[in-house]
Amino acid sequence: MYTFLVNLSILDIASTSCTLPKLLSILSTKQDTISFAGCITQLYFFLSLSCAEAILLSIMAYDRYVAICNPLRYVIIMNLRYCVCLSIIAWIVAFLDLSGHAVLISRLKFCASRIIDHFFCDLVPVLKMSCSDTYSVELLTYIEGAILGMATFFFTLGSYAFIISTILKIKSLQGQGKAFSTCSGHLICVTVFYSTLLGSYMRPRSYYLPKHDKFFALLYIVLVPMLNPVIYSLKNEEVKKVLKSLQDGLKGHTREM
Fold it and tell me: Which of 104, 117, 154, 200 has the highest Cβ tally under 10 A?
């Protein structure tokens, strides 16, 4: 599980690093410009990292499934080598999968407008600027969204269906609570991730409004990376012990003063 948490932390840092520094630069210098190559690069990395996070969360759901539904074989099945291989696959698939978008978008003509009605180069605002036919890009987006996006979503959903079924078979309430606590942190992260992602992209094009897009994008870029470490830190017993010792130390220091 820690192997996947390391990768999740790297993804959160990378996703915010490809969007927020440019936004902060625009706010501080008032120079709201970006090169064409920079825009395509930002778009590619943002989409690839989002895709990698969806795959990684589905892998983590499988990890929780094995831990709860097959606990005696967990160490054998989810060994370090297997976890590292799954993590590498998530990164490779995501970055290869979105390379087609970057190539197709880079070939479009942008003569209609040069103003991006967004605070970073997102897919829909960039396509709205183009005066070329964007059918191929949109078709590729729908196909990949249906194959990869829905596959990871339903794989996660299926894993939790088996997890909940197994938890309900546990007779004692204490056992049910202990089993549920092992996956509650991941379940919260999945809920926040997919709710913001669905709000951003899974809407009819006629309902895309710039204000709504910016709101959901800001939630996705800031809220998800900020909540993930907090959720998993509060669920970690070692972190709780450290926080408790720090609290006790501060109380003792206050009494001495």
Answer: 200
